[in-house]
Amino acid sequence: MKYKRVMLKLSGEALMGERNNGIDPTVVKHVAEQIKEIRERGVTVGIVIGGGNIFRGIVGATKGMDRITADHMGMLATLINALALQDAIEHLGIPVRLLSGIDIQKIAESYVRRRAMAHLAKGRVIIFGAGTGNPFFTTDTAAALRAIEIEAEVILKATNVDGIYTADPKKESSARRFDHISYQDVLEKNLKVMDGAAIAICRDTGIPIFVFDMNKSGSLVAAVQGEALGTLVY
């Protein structure tokens, strides 16, 4: 394995499968199986998951809802996804803990960095729910922040496209994939890999981001091995 400690960033939409919203149990199981595989190869794993498949805060805000209220609803949506993934991982016999950015003690442990590091030292997978616990910050920013805090070597950004392209490859056949690209170029070209705050955090701390297609069988293992099946931002 090229990386021994990774932060996996999953979007809420990644759990939908072919559905228009909600959670597809088959997809969740597939994700859990890939996580199990890298964990059994000695990799410690942190996961940040979004909630867009259930509720996207900005959509509520544009319909007249208070943005802070909407973002809190979005945080709760990430916890629903996190609970589903936690259950799937546990069913595979892998120890896992859910740490929440907001206090919700009957469902998850509250996030404390020392607690997270202790869980990782014991070989447990950690899922970070509720983002940073603050409105106006995306789960991309949460992934960058938590990756630094747990001393991850890379952020693995799982998408449904095998990397970063000059244009949408599903719309433009001439779109070219970048094998690697700098943080600054991602920001200047407005490539929408992660939000600007997350990219800036990674740039300032030097943590690389690897963008790959999680839907392909064995792709997570290949990503952790450092295979060139996506785009490296560094």
What does this structure look like?
The chain is of the alpha/beta class. It has a single domain, classed as 3-Layer(aba) Sandwich (Carbamate kinase), CATH 3.40.1160. Helices cover 38% and strands 19% of the residues. It has a 9-stranded mixed sheet, with helices on both faces. Helix 1 crosses helix 3 (67-90) and helix 5 runs parallel beside helix 7 (196-205). 44% of the residues are buried.
**Structural class by secondary-structure content:** alpha/beta
The span between the termini is 19 Å
Tally of individual domains: 1
Number of helices: 8
Low-confidence stretches: none
The best one-word shape is: globular
CATH architecture: 3-Layer(aba) Sandwich
User: What is CATH's topology name?
Assistant: Carbamate kinase
Major β-sheet annotation: 9 strands, mixed
Kindly report the spatial arrangement of strands forming the biggest sheet. Answer: 4-3-5-2-1-6-10-11-9
CATH superfamily: Acetylglutamate kinase-like
- Mean pLDDT over all positions: 93
What is the H-and-E element order? EHEHHEEHEHEEEEHHEHE
Percent of sequence in beta strands: 15-25%
Highest CATH level, the class: Alpha Beta
What Rg do the Cα atoms give?
Answer: 17 Å
Short précis:
By secondary structure, this protein is an alpha/beta fold. Helix content is 38%, strand content 19%.
Task: Provide the fold topology.
Elements: E1 5-10, H1 25-40, E2 44-49, H2 57-62, H3 67-90, E3 96-100, E4 109-110, H4 113-121, E5 125-129, H5 139-149, E6 154-159, E7 164-165, E8 177-178, E9 180-181, H6 183-188, H7 196-205, E10 209-213, H8 219-224, E11 231-233
Parallel strand pairs: 1-2, 1-6, 2-5, 3-4, 3-5, 6-10, 9-11
Antiparallel strand pairs: 7-8, 10-11
Helix pairs in contact: 1-3, 5-7
